């Protein structure tokens, strides 16, 4: 006998959809009920909140990689220019910026 699954229709850009599909694949297909087209998915209603959280984390990681800024337990530890070194959370970022601009 067929079973019905409650779902939520999600419309998004193809780039966001590809991230959602990767999250779903990494989670043993726990989120997506149906892939409808390039911009539309049906997501399991009870998993929507968890998917939003995972998507926000993935987007934050993508954004950090795009800017060249690396973050760690102690805040900014460097960027591509090397101007902003932040050693184990010691000092303030303004002081480091001032030192970098004076050199």
From TrEMBL:
Gene3D superfamilies: TFB5-like (3.30.70.1220)
Keywords: DNA damage, DNA repair, Nucleus, Transcription, Transcription regulation
GO biological process: nucleotide-excision repair, preincision complex assembly; transcription initiation at RNA polymerase II promoter
Main localization (coarse): nucleus
GO cellular component: transcription factor TFIIH core complex; transcription factor TFIIH holo complex
Alphabetized SUPFAM superfamilies for the sequence: TFB5-like (SSF142897)
Subcellular location: Nucleus
UniProt entry tagged with the keyword RNA-binding: no
Keyword Cell membrane: no
InterPro entries noted in UniProt: TFB5-like_sf (IPR035935), TFIIH_TTDA/Tfb5 (IPR009400)
Described function: In NER, TFIIH acts by opening DNA around the lesion to allow the excision of the damaged oligonucleotide and its replacement by a new DNA fragment. In transcription, TFIIH has an essential role in transcription initiation. When the pre-initiation complex (PIC) has been established, TFIIH is required for promoter opening and promoter escape.
Family per record: Belongs to the TFB5 family.
Protein name, UniProt field: General transcription and DNA repair factor IIH subunit TFB5
